[in-house]
């Protein structure tokens, strides 16, 4: 089964990124395998070919009519009542429009028609309506917490970045922790970890994962079902289903399955930078996990090595897209991710105590004020470190790969010595 997932994912990768169609090659291999009576491999290529055909249909399927767009973000510029509307069209292409005097008229997720510098409301999708229902109690909660971190909570809970200042955005980017300001795989994984252990008292594993999946679905709706959140949700749900089916987790297989699902559901997002970075980051984690199991890496070295491998695996995308690299993120993430976990735990406790116990709510509110302060101070400190300019990323990548090979060589020597002993 692992081979099926990997071959299918590689076929889709070849079709989309290399612009080559491997359907005929798959059919030839399938016929050869049928002739030599290798039924399992023949079935593998048969399923893989079927997935390729479905992917072709999905690629040519237009999700919106001409001049119809779905709003992905709204930015109030504050100059002459200008509002910037960020949106995607029927084939997933991103667009930006600027209008005057439309503040609070439209919501993220709305389908609109934009033509001749005029915008017309078309419809509000069901998931957007659900999100607005969820937002009513969340907004009351956000208005009750400290203004020192309310804008950050708003981003983490609803994926609404409108109150994040440009200074904070630049600060977090320089420190290599900008991903904390956009709800993505990190946030979903931390939510998964928190509730996985909270629900551990439930002995029935299927029931436990069913409740956990329900929580993740609700978080997906709350954060607007944007491509990054949907991508993170698909990854985690694939992980859960794989664990329930096979009793263990194979990260490479789940990565391949989630890629296949994502490619078929949202084929036009495959070219986005965020998509490539997230999947390559998980690939880096998968490699790191295999190395940990092989060489028994301790709990201090493993997180550092993981963040390093993530940086190396994502560096080519940064280089291609003319972006800079923050090598200090290897250390800044080791500090910020545990702080983010603590922030989310306290936020959940704050939500629970908001209507039940005012004193506890105020206590948790105070704790989160200090946690956010720690996150921001971490960003300030690490933003002062030098970055690797885009034209130097190739040198960084070569040196990093050589370092990884050297580390593996030393670990192999150590393992061989231990085996002999």
UniProtKB/TrEMBL annotation:
It comes from the Bacteria. Coiled coil: none annotated. Pfam families: Competence. Its main location: membrane. The chain crosses the membrane at residues 25-55, 181-202, 208-228, 249-267, 273-291, 300-319, 331-353, 360-381, 393-411. It is found in: Cell membrane. Keywords: Cell membrane, Membrane, Transmembrane, Transmembrane helix. GO terms for cellular component: plasma membrane. It is a multi-pass membrane protein. Residues 157-409 form the ComEC/Rec2-related protein domain. Signal peptide: none annotated. InterPro entries: ComEC_N (IPR004477), Competence_DNA_uptake (IPR052159). NCBIfam families: ComEC_N-term. This is COME operon protein 3.
